[in-house]
Specification:
CATH superfamily of chain A: Fe-S hydro-lyase, tartrate dehydratase beta-type, catalytic domain
Shape of chain B: globular
CATH architecture of chain A: Alpha-Beta Barrel
Helix content of chain A: 10-25%
Number of domains of chain A: 1
Distance between the termini of chain B: 13 Å
CATH class of chain A: Alpha Beta
Shape of chain A: globular
Bound molecules: iron/sulfur cluster
Radius of gyration of chain A: 15 Å
Helix content of chain B: 25-40%
Strand content of chain B: 15-25%
Strand content of chain A: 25-35%
Number of helices of chain B: 8
Distance between the termini of chain A: 19 Å
Largest interface: A-B, 39 and 42 residues
Largest sheet of chain A: 5 strands, mixed, barrel
Structural class of chain B: alpha/beta
Number of strands of chain A: 7
Strand order of the largest sheet of chain B: 4-2-5-10
Oligomer: heterodimer
Strand order of the largest sheet of chain A: 2-3-4-5-7
C-alpha cells in the first residue's frame, strides 16, 4: 500500500505500517551513521544525554556529499544499516521509532523493534541524487568534527521508502 | 620516447574523479534501460525507473549519482617509453584526487588509519595500481568504489579439485550474502587464478570492463553467461526487494595459477559501477 506519513511517528501510527508498504515520509528526521552511533553509544554508557531527541523520532543512516551553493544538501541516499546493529537496540529501548537505511539487520534488532514497536524503512540505495530533492533543509546539530558523519537535522518532504521490517517482526527481505 | 608533465596527470585525474561520480558509462546506462524493459516484477520496475530518474538528475543538476563517492581506485597503464617530468607521479595523482573531490563537491570518505579512523578530509590517498606496458601511451582508469558493495566482496582460496563447480558456488555464495546490502542491481567482477592478491586485483579490474561485452575466452564467456542467469534466478532484484534484475553483468578475468591452487575473488559492485578511462 502507498501511505504518506508525517514525523514524529507515534506507536499507534507505527503499528499500522506493514512490511511491503511504500511510504512517503515528511517532517523532521535526523541523520547519523557509523561514527555518530559510536559516540551516542559511548555517551549513553557514561550516562550522558544524547544530542537528539529519540522518542518517536526517525534516524536516517546517511552521510551526504557536500551541498553546492544555494542547495540544502548534496547527494543523500542511505548507507548499509547492518553496521549500526551493534548500537541500535539501545537507541530503540530509549524510544527511537524508525530507521531509514538499506540492507539486512540482525535478529537482535528485530527483537528490539518488536519490543518497542519500531519500524525499519529501506530507502533506495544509490539513488542519492533523486533522494536529495526530497530534503528541503539540513543543519548540522552535533558532532560537527565528524564531517559527513556529523548528526544533521533534516526536513524532508515525501521521501520515498519501503517498510522492510515492521513492528510485528515481518520482514520483506528473504 | 614521450615526455609527459605530471601536472597534466593531476588535471586529468581531477576531471575523471568528477566525471565518474556524475555520469555512468554508456554500457551501464544501456543495461539499466534494458533491465527496466525486461523486468516483470512491479516493485522491481518501479525501483529501476527511480534509478533511471536518479541518473538523469545527477547529470543534469550536478548532484553525485550516489552520496558514497567512494574510495578512489586508479589503474595506471604506463608505456615503457614514457618519461615523466615535473615531480613525483604518485603525488601528482593524489593531488588530482584531492582537487577532484574538493571542486566536484564529492564526499570525503577516507580515514587515515583503519583503527584510529580520522578522516583525511580530502579523500586521499587513492589506491593506485601501476602496470608497465609496451609503447609510449599512458592509460588511466579512475574507478571510485563504494563500500556498501565493497564490504560484501569475498576471496576464496579453492582447491584445484573444486574445479569450475567450486568457482560457480563461490560466486553465488558471495552474491547471496551481499543481497540488499550491495545496492542491487549489481555488477560482479570475478578474478580467477594468479595468487591471493592477483585474483583480487583482477576482480577489481573486471568491474571496469564494458558490461555488454563478454570475454573472448570460450569457457569464460560461457561461465559469465551462466552465472548471470543463475544470479538473476535468485530473485534478489532491484534494491533487494524482489524481481529478476539482481545483476547487470558478471565480468570475469583469469590468470595463470599454481599447481596447488584455484584462487577466486568476487568483487561486488552496485548499480553505480563508476569508471572513467582516458589515454594520452
Ligand atoms: S553500494 Fe554503491 S549505490 Fe550503494 S551506497 Fe554504496 S556506492 Fe552507493
Amino acid at each position: 500500500m502507498e501511505k504518506h506519513i508525517q514525523t514524529p511517528i507515534t506507536q499507534d501510527l507505527a503499528v499500522t505500517l506493514q512490511a511491503g508498504d511504500m511510504v512517503y515520509i515528511s517532517g523532521t528526521i535526523y541523520s547519523a551513521r557509523d561514527a555518530a552511533h559510536k559516540r551516542m553509544f559511548e555517551a549513553l554508557k557514561k550516562g550522558e544525554s544524547l544530542p537528539i531527541p529519540l522518542t518517536d523520532n526517525v534516524i536516517y543512516y546517511l552521510g551526504p556529499s557536500p551541498a553546492r551553493e544555494g542547495r540544502p544538501i548534496g547527494s543523500a541516499g542511505p548507507t548499509t544499516s547492518g553496521r549500526m546493529d551493534k548500537y541500535t537496540p539501545q537507541l530503540l529501548d530509549k524510544g527511537l521509532r524508525g530507521m531509514i537505511g538499506k540492507g539486512k539487520r540482525t535478529e537482535a534488532i528485530k527483537e528490539a523493534m518488536i519490543r518497542n514497536k519500531a519500524v525499519y524503512f529501506a530507502a533506495i540505495g544509490g539513488a542519492g541524487a533523486l533522494l536529495s530533492k526530497c530534503i528541503t533543509a539540513s543543519e548540522v546539530i552535533a558532532y560537527e568534527n565528524l564531517g559527513t558523519e556529523a548528526i544533521r537535522k533534516l526536513e524532508v518532504k515525501d521521501l520515498p521508502a519501503i517498510v522492510v521490517m515492521d513492528a510485528n517482526g515481518n520482514c520483506l527481505y528473504q | 620516447m614521450k615526455t609527459i608533465q605530471t601536472n597534466k596527470i593531476t588535471e586529468m585525474i581531477k576531471e575523471m574523479c568528477i566525471e565518474a561520480n556524475y555520469f555512468l558509462t554508456e554500457d551501464m546506462k544501456h543495461r539499466l534501460d534494458a533491465s527496466y524493459t525486461e523486468e516483470t516484477d512491479p516493485l522491481g520496475r518501479q525501483i529501476l525507473s527511480i534509478l533511471q530518474d536518479n541518473l538523469k538528475i545527477a547529470g543534469e543538476e550536478m548532484i553525485p549519482i550516489c552520496q558514497d563517492t567512494g574510495m578512489t581506485v586508479i589503474f595506471m597503464e604506463i608505456g615503457q617509453d614514457v618519461h615523466f617530468e615535473g615531480g613525483d607521479l604518485n603525488a601528482a595523482i593524489q593531488e588530482g584526487v584531492r582537487q577532484g573531490y574538493e571542486e566536484g563537491y564529492l564526499r570525503k570518505s577516507v580515514v587515515k588509519d583503519p583503527i584510529e579512523r580520522v578522516n583525511t578530509g580530502d579523500n586521499t590517498p587513492a589506491v593506485i595500481h601501476y602496470e608497465i606496458v609496451p609503447g609510449d601511451k599512458v592509460t588511466i582508469t579512475v574507478a571510485p568504489k563504494g563500500f556498501g558493495s565493497e564490504n560484501m566482496s569475498r576471496i576464496f582460496m579453492l582447491k584445484p579439485a573444486d574445479g569450475i563447480e567450486g568457482v560457480k558456488n563461490a560466486i553465488l555464495t558471495a552474491v547471496k550474502d551481499a543481497g540488499p546490502n550491495a545496492c542491487p542491481p549489481m555488477v560482479i567482477g570475478v578474478g580467477i587464478g594468479g595468487t591471493f592478491e592477483k585474483a583480487a586485483i583482477l576482480s577489481k579490474k573486471a568491474l571496469t570492463r564494458n558490461v555488454e561485452e563478454r570475454s573472448d575466452k570460450e569457457w569464460v564467456k560461457a561461465l559469465e553467461t551462466e552465472m548471470l542467469e543463475k544470479i538473476n534466478a535468485l530473485s534478489i532484484g532491484p534494491a533487494g526487494l524482489g524481481g529478476h534484475t539482481t545483476a547487470f553483468a558478471v565480468n570475469i578475468e583469469t590468470y595463470a595459477t599454481h599447481i596447488a591452487g584455484l584462487p577466486v575473488a568476487v568483487n561486488i559492485c552496485c548499480h553505480v559501477n563508476r569508471h572513467s578511462k582516458r589515454s594520452l
